[in-house]
Amino acid sequence: MRRFFPGLVAVLLGGATLFAAEPIRVVSFSALLSEVAREVGGDAVDVVGLVKPGVDPHGYQPTPVDLKTLAGARLVLISGKHLEPYVDKVARVAPAGSVILSVGDRLPSLDAPEGGHDHGHAHGHGHAEGESAVDPHWWHSVAQMRRAVVVVRDALTALAPEDKAQFAKNAAGYLARLAVLDKWIRQQVALLPRDQRRLVTSHDAFQYFARDYGFQIEAIEGLSTEQEASAGRVQELMALIRKEGVKAVFFEDTLNPKVTTEITRETGTRVGGMLYADGPGAAEPTYEQMQRHNVTTIVEALR
Amino acid sequence: MVVALLLLLLVPLRSLTRAPEAVAPAPARAAAETRSVQLTLVATARPVTFSVTHLGREIWKGEAAGQPVETTLDLPWPAEGVDLGVSATWPGGVTGALKLEATPEGDEPQTRTAWGDGAVEETFTYR
Ligand SMILES: [Zn+2]
């Protein structure tokens, strides 16, 4: 019996080698984090993206079919900063031993200014009245996106230490592309005088972009697309557009542009174009496409 | 919900749309104050060929061979600050640093630095 043992070990090792290549199943509730996981994980991951490009993440709720895809997941990616009110439900359904990673919660936050955008409505982020809301739209800062890449790289490495070198190489390549993108954005926005970088948008999604690239944001609605604009806020904005001579206002891919159009008709300013606020769109599904589209649209309209 | 929002909004908007016959175009913003600004460029590599842009227009170009070079020009200088684009190349592909100092008249100098291998292309912000 004993002399067969080496052969048995060889068979087991052979089998182990075959099955070691089984990719890590990643389920992502963010179109951008799906991209990050694919870029960093490469062949070593199997990414199921439940919130696809073009879907409004504020309004998304996982269906029973969506939740079934969590079976076998080893890593669950959440955008975080209170964007996903269903995260507890995901935690109940996710397999034991899987890692639920709320990437945004690992990144620095911008707090929405308390009372700074009193739109005359209740906020919808689960925070009590009088508390300041955390802005969930971290991805509009390329620096934040770069931090997110590092967070996902480290999570994948913890799950598959044997692929550490590959994850590091993939992440480095992606980070380098993001650095080029950041430099390009800075060059483009430099075409606009810093005192004319005022963005009037549908909902308050661009504060991280504003902080990095020197803009001031005036949003019709609040931090979530689920929040409603008040007529008072619209009038306040129209007065500001007239006073400051704001050249253009922008609408968003997942929101009806009706109010934006009304504002332009009232004030004589013009529609600057469509922006991707809550992630890339179906027609331009990558992070880089989203940023290049937004920046080109903004610079052309405000120049 | 969106429909309800639009209906709510249309009432006050319609009352506003009735008022004037023609919509006056938005007024132009007051122009930013123009200031005399001294620019000083220092590069560790040599010789460096450089170009400085403001709002997409080249405002200064030249060569620096080790010593600081400087110029003074008038620039609109809003309180929000000014972005200057800097591109430079030098031979050999060696690692070098480029420093651009801006001093608006009456203010302290502000220095920004970039590193590159044979070239830099950066956007610097000054307040
Ligand atoms: Zn949003």
Structure write-up:
The complex is a heterodimer of chains A (about 300) and B (about 130). Chain A is an alpha/beta fold and about 300 residues long. Chain A has two domains: about 25-180, Rossmann fold, CATH 3.40.50; about 195-300, Rossmann fold (3-Layer(aba) Sandwich), CATH 3.40.50.1980. Chain A is built from ten helices and eight strands. In chain A, strands 2-1-3-4 form a four-stranded parallel beta sheet, with helices on one face. The longest helix of chain A is centred in the middle third of the chain and has 26 residues, at about 165-190. Chain A is globular and about 60 Å long. Chain B is mostly beta strands. Chain B has one domain. Chain B is built from one helix and eight strands; from the N terminus they run αββββββββ. Chain B has one helix at about 1-20, and strands at about 35-45, 50-55, 55-65, 70-75, 80-90, 95-105, 110-115, 120-125. In chain B, the strands form two sheets. In chain B, strands 4-1-6-7 form a four-stranded antiparallel beta sheet, with no helix packed on it. In chain B, β2 (about 50-55) and β3 (about 55-65) form a beta hairpin. Chain B is elongated. Classes of the chains: A alpha/beta (about 300), B mainly beta (about 130). At the A-B interface, α6, α8 and α9 of A face α1, β5 and β8 of B. The structure holds zinc ion (ZN). Zinc ion (ZN) binds near residues 137, 205 and 225 of chain A. Zinc ion binds near residues 203, 225 and 277 of chain A.
Features:
heterodimer, A: 303 residues, alpha/beta, Rossmann fold, 2 domains, four-stranded parallel β-sheet, two-stranded parallel sheet, 10 helices, globular, disordered N terminus, B: 127 residues, mainly beta, four-stranded antiparallel β-sheet, 1 helix, elongated, binds zinc ion
